[in-house]
Hints:
single chain, two-stranded antiparallel ribbon
Amino acid sequence: MTTLTHIPANDIDGSLKDAGVRAGADSGNPLLRTLPVDPGNSAQTGIWECQPGGWPVIDRPDTEVCYILSGRATLTDDESGQQVEISTGSFVVLPVGWTGR
């Protein structure tokens, strides 16, 4: 069955659960809090937040699509060396095979 998924903005922060330190972290203390959302299909969907830190992403196995609700980060593409500052309102797509930080 296809259904609508709705999480009111006021419910998001209180619904995030501690998920430990980001796997592969090599700087800072990037503690995660997550809220998995079941969209009723094979996509992995959810909301997450992370404390400051850094980690490499090597050969992404899937596409990640993000809309930044708050905060900021710097993404660095290994192939081109391009650095992108993302912040509130940014939309980001990291494709299959992407490598960077």
